[in-house]
Design a protein that fits this description.
About 10% of the residues are buried. The protein is α+β, with helices and mostly antiparallel strands and about 425 residues long. Helix content is about 65%, strand content about 10%. A four-stranded antiparallel β-sheet has the order 2-1-4-3. Strands 5-6 form a two-stranded parallel sheet. A hairpin with a 5-residue loop joins strand 1 (about 90-95) and strand 2. Helix 2 (about 10-60) runs antiparallel to helix 5 and helix 7 runs antiparallel to helix 8.
């Protein structure tokens, strides 16, 4: 990366640029706020001056607006305009038809619009004022005059200029201070970066030489500790490699032994599955045959013959239930059992009794039994209330994709399965 590009992308340059930018924004905001405040002060001062002038003129002119006293008013106007300290530039008295009765020589023709915004008039140097006044013959005339704002504008400009100079000097000092401390900080960071680059390139003996009690000095000490730790770990690496090699050999031996144990366990599971299939096929076949024959006898009306057959079905069901419990106990003892997984029971009284027996056995041996639903029937419920809504809700759930079919080797299948 070119050095110039690295400088512009470095965090130090960005921090310096952001700091200077923030100071500049604060400078401009302060300057703008000061100018705005001074403008408001000037507007308020002008309004106050206009109010005082209007009150004084009204008190002096209103009692002398008769036709006989108009010469007095003319002389008064000339005195008001001709004074050295006056801010009034012209005076004019108009009748109720807006005709000039008395005016000073500097009165502009035509008379300026007094309804312009006050801020614009202040910037032009003269504020034009029009106020009603009682004249002869009980008429309502208008007193028009102009108030000069040139001195106030000049004073405002001087204040703004002095404020800009003071703020500019402060800005230069602040930026200079930021650049000075930023340069010093940059030198210290550069030393730390160079040490880190040397360490990354393989020079494990490099160390940072920053001194002091600030954060960079603390980071330098931590860097030196890290470099020392890395050097010691690499020096100790060769001895660890031999130890790891020996551990790998021992691990391979244990894996081989565990593989043999797993193979023996799988073989035992296959044998157990074959025995379970054989032991359950007999009772279940007997139950099926006896039940069919009992149904046939009941249909024929031979209840006396059907009753012993139903008792035989009950005996076979009890035997089947005891056999299931015995097979579970055998599996627990021979193979170990962490949990039992099955579908939820949704059959008749025989299957429910078997389900209860399996539940008691699991509780007695502390084995968790996880039953999965196989269709819309919800188990267990305290009553049939709400059964239809639960069934419809479950059946309305979206279908899950079927698992991919897997082939079962013939060698893993038992006879008759």
């Amino acid at each position: 990366m070119p050095p110039s590009r690295y400088v512009f992308q470095s965090l130090r340059f960005r921090l310096l640029a952001v700091s200077i930018g923030i100071v500049m924004l604060l400078f401009l905001a302060t300057l703008w706020n000061t100018a705005r405040a001074l403008r408001h002060i000037s507007i308020d001062d002008t309004r106050s001056s206009i109010a005082q002038t209007a009150e004084a003129l009204n008190l002096a002119v209103a009692p002398n607006t008769t036709r006989q006293d108009l010469p007095k008013i003319r002389n008064y106007f000339l005195e008001m305009v001709g004074g050295d300290d006056t801010r009034i530039t012209y005076l004019a008295l108009l009748d109720d038809r807006h005709r000039v009765i008395v005016q000073t020589p500097a009165t502009p023709t035509p008379l300026p619009d007094a309804k312009r915004p006050l801020e614009q008039q202040i910037e032009s140097g003269v504020v034009h004022v029009a106020q009603p006044i009682l004249i002869y013959d009980n008429g309502i005339g208008s007193l028009r005059y102009g108030v000069s704002t040139r001195r106030a504008n000049a004073a405002l400009q001087r204040v703004v200029t002095q404020n800009m100079l003071a703020l500019g000097l402060t800005l230069a000092l602040v930026i200079g201070t930021i650049v000075y401390f930023g340069t010093r900080l940059n030198r210290r960071i550069t030393r730390l970066v160079r040490a880190s680059s040397a360490l990354a390139s393989g020079d494990l003996g490099t160390r940072s030489l920053l001194r002091g009690d600030d954060e960079l000095a603390l980071l330098s000490r931590v860097f030196n500790q890290m470099a020392q730790s890395i050097q010691e770990r690499i020096a100790d690496g060769e001895a660890k490699r031999a130890e790891i090699s020996a551990l790998n050999q021992d691990l391979e031996r244990r894996v081989a032994e565990r593989t043999i144990d797993l193979q023996e366990m799988v073989s035992g599971l296959e044998s157990f599955n074959r025995s379970v299939s054989h032991d359950l096929r007999g009772p279940l076949g007997g139950i099926e045959g006896a039940a069919r024959e009992a149904l046939h006898r009941i249909d024929a009306g031979d209840l006396d013959t059907a009753r012993p057959m139903l008792e035989a079905v009950a005996d076979q069901a009890r035997t089947s239930r005891e056999l299931v419990v015995s097979l579970l106990e055998l599996a627990r003892r021979r193979l170990g059992m962490a949990a039992l997984w099955s579908h939820e029971e949704t059959g008749n009284g025989v299957t429910y009794a078997r389900d209860c027996a399996v539940a008691r056995w699991c509780r007695a041996h502390g084995i968790p039994w996880r039953e999965l639903p196989q269709f819309g029937v919800v188990r267990p419920l305290p009553s049939r209330r709400g059964w239809a809504q639960r069934w419809e809700g479950r059946m309305a759930e979206p279908l899950r994709p079927a698992p991919p079919p897997s082939a079962i080797p013939c060698s893993k299948m038992s006879r008759g399965s």
